[in-house]
């Protein structure tokens, strides 16, 4: 079994110097670090993480708290995890996933065991009980998301205002004047005051009004079946609609299926734009969905970097909002020119609503 003594002899340094490096208790020069790490590679030395944690009172493990029982995993979610793990690895930390609930009960129990140095909190609610739990425990943490009160909280998030603005502008420039948002269902207890859904819907109402568009918002759960039903409801209640924005990636797949089941061609009869999605999911539909690409890689990295800076006593990372970027697929085109009777019917419907 290779020991620290063996590594010290190979590197030409003292055992204490090797210990300083492994336990992060005293700084060593870059040249000395390089010799020790090279010796470890040549000898096949593996660090004893338990001993390191006991010596430094730190585990060099951080957790990403994700309420997996309440929120489904999607391909966009995976990007947050993988980018966060890579950012942690580069700073000599390990990242673990904690699928703990939104109520903070499980999180409190895990924090009491001293398993991690800090927590990256995901799927943040506007008033999130987990924030209080982390503050009471004195555990360093960073948010990927935003609560209503942000004073003193390290956070990064999607720029929902810019994302929605860019999406509506894209449809408007194609000639669409009858749009609808299929949003999240905030009556679902799992998503009570869920930040992304609240902020997206608020942004859409503001942006649509600024363009002089009728504001049509339909709630929808985070399933493909719910997306199908929402599409059918929209066609029945708002037949004048020519373009749909969909918030949830699973629902977006269902909307495409529901439109087709109702005899609509995409994009000839209806344009569809998914607000937060990744290319792998967009490619599941035929034609491929036009989307606002979720900035998961950037936010996973930034959220982890913000936490590690706090753990290392470095300057804090300023709060950052990152918009989703437009990725044109094949589900948006100009609306069909309305037939005279259809146009007259739409005007009458508008007059009746007013």
Question: How would you sum up this structure, described in words?
Answer:
The chain is of the alpha/beta class and 354 residues long. 46% of the residues lie in helices and 14% in strands. The chain contains 14 helices and twelve strands. The strands form two sheets. Strands 2-1-3-4-5-11 form a six-stranded parallel β-sheet, with helices on both faces. A six-stranded mixed β-sheet has the order 7-6-8-9-10-12, with helices on both faces. The longest helix is centred in the C-terminal third of the chain and has 17 residues, at 296-312. The chain is elongated and about 85 Å long.
Question: Notable features of this structure?
Answer:
354 residues; alpha/beta; six-stranded mixed beta sheet
Class by alpha and beta content: alpha/beta
Arithmetic mean of pLDDT = 89
The low-pLDDT segments are: 341-345
Helix count equals 14
Oligomer type: single chain
Radius of gyration: 25 Å
Question: What fraction, in percent, of the residue positions are helical?
Answer: 40-55%
Q: How are the strands of the largest sheet arranged? A: 2-1-3-4-5-11
**What's the order of the H and E elements?**
HHHHEHEHEHEEHEHEHEHEHEHEEH
Let me know the largest β-sheet: 6 strands, parallel
Share in β-strands = 5-15%
Tally the beta strands. 12
Distance between the termini: 82 Å
Rough shape? Answer: elongated
């Amino acid at each position: 079994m290779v020991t620290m003594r063996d590594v010290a002899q190979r590197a030409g340094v003292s055992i204490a110097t090797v210990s300083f490096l492994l336990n992060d208790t005293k700084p060593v020069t870059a040249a000395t670090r390089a010799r020790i790490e090279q010796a470890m590679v040549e000898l096949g030395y593996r660090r004893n993480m338990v001993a390191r944690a006991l010596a430094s009172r730190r585990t060099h493990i951080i957790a990403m708290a994700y309420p997996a029982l309440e929120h489904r995993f999607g391909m966009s979610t995976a990007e947050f995890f993988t980018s966060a793990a890579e950012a942690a690895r580069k700073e000599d930390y390990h990242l673990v996933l904690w699928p703990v609930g939104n109520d903070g009960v499980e999180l409190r129990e895990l924090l009491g065991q001293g398993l991690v140095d800090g927590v990256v909190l995901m799927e943040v609610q506007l008033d999130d009980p987990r924030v209080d739990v982390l503050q009471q425990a004195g555990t360093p943490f960073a948010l990927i998301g935003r609560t209503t009160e942000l004073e003193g909280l390290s956070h990064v998030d999607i720029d929902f205002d810019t994302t929605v603005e860019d999406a509506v502008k894209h449809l408007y420039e194609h000639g669409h004047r009858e749009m609808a948002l299929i949003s999240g269902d905030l009556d679902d207890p799992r998503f009570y005051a869920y930040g992304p859904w609240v902020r997206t819907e608020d942004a859409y109402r503001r942006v649509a009004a600024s363009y002089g568009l009728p504001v049509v918002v339909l709630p929808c759960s985070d399933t493909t079946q719910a997306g199908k039903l929402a599409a059918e409801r929209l066609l029945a209640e708002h037949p004048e609609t020519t373009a749909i924005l969909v918030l949830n990636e699973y629902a977006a797949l269902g909307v495409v299926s529901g439109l087709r089941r109702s005899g609509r061609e995409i994009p000839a009869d209806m344009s569809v734009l998914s607000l937060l999605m990744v290319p792998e999911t967009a490619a599941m539909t035929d034609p491929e969905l036009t989307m606002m690409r979720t900035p998961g890689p950037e936010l996973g990295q930034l959220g982890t970097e913000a936490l590690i800076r706090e753990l290392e006593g470095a300057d804090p990372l300023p709060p950052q909002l990152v918009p989703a970027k437009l990725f044109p697929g094949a589900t948006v085109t100009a609306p069909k020119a309305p037939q005279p009777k259809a146009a007259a019917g739409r005007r009458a419907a508008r007059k009746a609503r007013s």
